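Exercise 7. Given the components listed, write out the predicted structure of the assembled complex. Treat all entries as one system.
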Amino acid sequence: MPDKALIEVKDLKLHFPIMEGLIFQRRIGAVRAVDGISFSIRKGETLGLVGESGCGKSTTARAIAQLHKPTAGEVIFEGTDITNLTKNELLKVRQNLQMVFQDPYASLNPRMTVGNIISEPIEIYIKYGLLKVEKGEIDTRVDHLMERVGLSRYFKNRFPHEFSGGQRQRIGIARSLALNPKVILADEPVSALDVSIQAQILNLMKDLQEELGLTYLFIAHDLAVIEFISTRIAVMYLGKIVEIAPASKLYKNPLHPYTEALLSAAPVPDPQIEKTRKRIILSGDVPSPDKKRTNCYFYDRCPKRMAKCKDELPELTEVGNDHQVACFLHTA
Amino acid sequence: MNRDIILQVKGLKTYFGTDDGIVKAVDGVSFDVARGETLGIVGESGCGKSVTNLSIMRLIPTPPGKIAGGEVLYDGKDILKMKVDDVRKIRGNNISMIFQDPMTSLNPFLRISTQLMESFRLHQGMNKAEAMDHSIEMLKLVGIPSPEKRVRDYPHQFSGGMRQRVMIAMALSCRPDVLVADEPTTALDVTIQAQIMELMKDLSRQFNTATILITHDLGVVAGFCDFICVMYAGKMIEEAPNELLFKDPKHPYTIGLLNSVPRFDSEDRSRLFSIEGQPPNLINLPECCPFYPRCDRVMEICKTRYPVAKELENNRKVSCWLYK
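Answer.
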């Protein structure tokens, strides 16, 4: 088992301030999008991050890539904390830390040709003197990347609107691979795609990982997708990680009540299973993340809450077999 | 089996005229629903599921859209031949719809009460006070806490799941015979989706409503529907009772679709089956099987002629040359 942590996130927090007033702005609170999470991503693995909308999955990925500056905490990549780097140092780190975005319609510049979109990262790195590539080599590299992700290289001079959603996502993946990164942060890369296309992209990402030895942080809200692609899975709720476990274990033996509910709510395409299994229906909605909480974040909706949960916050604790959970039911 | 058929669609064709040619969004679709039944229409984006159901309600913008043929029989009368005023009396009263996006399908400028009361006053001739009482009752029915207060709120004061509940309350307010739900849970999270599907199941049973559920999520239809139609490129390619479709899919597209869904209860995580290629462009589609370029069991005949639906045992139908 590859045990070396490539990225280590320590007590990461990202709060977005809520401002009031037009001229004299003052801070009246904060949206606690990510509220103190710690985990590591091991070399060569896929860490799946799953949770409902607004739980802070995307913010986590963006905080790791330093697209938003974290409010507190550390992101350690290959031994160095990257939260306080200068712009140039960060550029160097980002060569190894690339993102694939959710919406293949919004994440490609409609005025650039596909060839330009894929070669742009290379050209930027040449401009800053971080990469030395011959002019002709860029072209061959783009051709190679396009063919690697399953696009014909003759599409190089076309514009994004000429492609379907699945093809655009392939362009996004090719762009993220342009600098030979070590880590890909994939923020819901298949959520906007149809089932048959989704399967193509998932297979492609799996193949690329094997071939290039990539490490993924893979975000999705679809549990089945996450289970398929991930080595380990982290479940997020309201800016906190409630459970981390190896993929197969999480599905067989979920420990946190939220994970249980999430799994039981996910529909399975099999009527026999659907008719017999019991659903845990959570009451209510996800509460607003703008409050400071001192008790368990899931307390309001938890079907198994105890007196203790109301006053204390359970920490994410190892319970054996590489399984971590933040719940008093299991950590006492 | 004695089915009380309430809505019957026969050979429906809806075409859109574009600069590049005619888009046959729906091309000869037939199905029926009986009271108390749920019918699922599954397919990928652009296959014509939503257009089918907008056509039933005569909500297709004309031009560019045009219903080019077919019949939609509600209670024996053809909706497509009715006067617009008569269709209005049916919409929201006898047949009502739940739309995909609860964020945009409520009017943000009007209170929930105004929007809910509208159908009571219009279709059932109630006065304001009666309509308000009924609105509150409907909100209570769909599980909105303290409905007396919430009824005066605006849509933005509700969360996504709550808005979808309001939409359901609105759709069911006149006790319709047919409820068309167009991707009702696609915009929602799984835990909220489970709440909403449970609610729809309860209420349609309670009111004995015929439900048409349109979705791309095979998991949702598996748990909800009695009968399933699979659409591809504007045509129904397979129709079967729920259990049978999942146990023994016939059409290569259905088989591929079922195999390409990752499942968390399966052990095998090596590779997903995937249907290669892209769904076809619907402009000037030739008279062949629309699926043949992606099909792994393609034959010569598939490239030249469209297979007519073949009836199999157990009320199943499939449109594929493999079953001739």
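Discussion: The radius of gyration of chain A is 21 Å. Chain A touches chain B through 45 residues (CB under 8 Å).
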